[in-house]
Design a protein that fits this description.
Arc Repressor Mutant, subunit A; mainly alpha; 173 residues; 2 domains
Length: 173
């Protein structure tokens, strides 16, 4: 049974990821660039590039490349860090914030398409079950408790190879 669950969860995650990739491509973004925008947005729209690399779980040089591409697209800009003259911040521009709004809407439409097949009650139950797998809540007091990796497999949802960023970032795009 658990193998079937894992297979179904992986296929669903792949389906969400394919839909997201299609939408991101239409917006002129890669998955990595979209993740960077989302991470910056969660941190008041700016952070040091070294911190961005850490949060994206990539090497600093790769983060610099992502920042370069987003800067060329006008979605972010580099600023001096007021707390450390040697450091540089990556900061979202107005265009970056606007694009994030479009990304949120595209993600909502894709989620509505997939999960709209379920009743409201089924959707709520699915949320509770997935939260239990993430270690956020126990289901009926007997589900997966926080930190119970043995009961939840690896403790990560299928498709969560990127530190929980997608397909289903910890918070909306």
């Amino acid at each position: 049974m658990t193998a079937r669950l894992a297979d179904l969860l992986l296929r669903t995650a792949r389906r969400l990821r394919r839909a997201e990739a299609k939408e991101l491509s239409a917006l002129g973004l890669t998955h990595g660039q979209a993740r960077a925008l989302r991470v910056l947005n969660r941190r008041d729209g700016h952070m040091r590039i070294s911190e961005l690399a850490e949060r994206l779980e990539i090497v600093p040089r790769s983060a610099t490349t992502v920042v370069d591409m987003l800067e060329q697209a006008g979605l972010l800009e580099r600023r001096k860090d007021p707390d450390d003259r040697r450091a540089v911040l990556a900061a979202l521009t107005v265009a970056g914030h606007e694009l994030l709004g479009r990304m949120r809407e595209e993600r909502r439409v894709a989620a509505d398409t997939l999960f709209g097949r379920l009743s409201e009650a089924q959707q709520q139950e699915l949320v509770l079950l997935l939260e239990a797998l993430q270690g956020n809540k126990a289901v009926g007091g007997t589900g997966v408790a926080p930190g119970d990796a043995a009961a939840a497999g690896s403790g990560k949802a299928a498709g969560d190879q990127t530190g929980g960023e997608s397909p289903g970032d910890r918070e909306s795009a």
